[in-house]
Amino acid sequence: MTPVLEAVKLGKRYGRHHALTDVDLNVPPGRVIGLVGPNGAGKSTLLQLACGLIAPSSGTIRVLGAAPAAGPAHLARVGFVAQDTPVYADLSVADHLRMGARLNPRWDQALARRRLARSDLDPRQKAGRLSGGQRAQLALTLAAAKRPELLILDEPAAALDPLARQAFLEHLTESVAELGAAAVLSSHALSDVRRVCDHVIVLAGSRVLVAGDVTDLLAGHVRVTARHADLARLPGGAEIVRYTDGASGGASGGAPGGAPGGGAPDEGTAVVRTDRALPSDGPWTTADIGLEEVVLAHLGRAAGSTTPAGSTTPTPAEAHR
């Protein structure tokens, strides 16, 4: 199957600043992809490259099997919602739909009208008088009515209040299902990603830290509670992503119901990436892990804050000795 998004050694540089470095991706079709990472990680740069708005400095990127924005036919296959959900303030909602119909050969007017009705948008209202949530709904309607094979959304709900955010995510889920499309959603809110995405790409420091289907990522990570010295007995193929010393009372990650703290002074909790189940007779206890804890563990390690002050993080080499 042709990947929705494929990158090989992709890089983007602005002067001496590396926005993306050696990015390798292969995202299968039919996924709703969450793109997460801190500010400056390269998320918007990756999405702009995917849309053909900028060109790579090195490597290659392909979208739906072709170079981004390869031509009018390819542009029609991709819908884009920018971070500020731009609309034309002096045009009415209906004007936006008429413009969309003129510019897009696969425009679906019936879908656009259903989306407007679902979002309670008055076709007569000027876009400049819409709330932030309503502008986001209009921008998503315009992108979806193109009937694209891929929707790309760059932090579209960043400035929305909780109710508007919930409505937008419901609109997105319904649109993707109706179109049978893939989608890439960049977001700082891990709760949003957990709710609507089934594939995740984690970026930090211009590089991909981890990427894959959510089910595979959760199956490949486990929370381990053990004495620090016993973590050295983890089997080969097990990598400690993040370790938290129990004596600090801190928890690794931050997901609700996360790792317990305040245990024995020499006991801590590790987020471990492994390609197989850990032995049940080892000197540790294991527990399933949530997506937020996995993501935060990788981001914490990349930021150099993998442990609370005074604790020690075993390296993979130490853990496998």
CATH architecture of the largest domain: 3-Layer(aba) Sandwich
The count of strands amounts to 13
Looking at the structure, the CATH topology of the largest domain is Rossmann fold
Structural class: alpha/beta
Biggest sheet strand order reads: 5-6-7-3-8-9
Shape: elongated
User: What string, H for helix and E for strand, traces the elements in order?
Assistant: EEEHEHEHHHEHEHEEHEEEEHH
Broad CATH class of the largest domain: Alpha Beta
Largest sheet: 6 strands, mixed
Task: Spell out the key features of this protein.
four-stranded antiparallel sheet; 10 helices; 321 residues; six-stranded mixed sheet; 29% helix; 13 strands; alpha/beta
In short:
The protein is α/β, with parallel strands linked by helices and 321 residues long. The protein contains ten helices and 13 strands. It folds into two domains: 210 residues, Rossmann fold (3-Layer(aba) Sandwich); 100 residues, no CATH class.
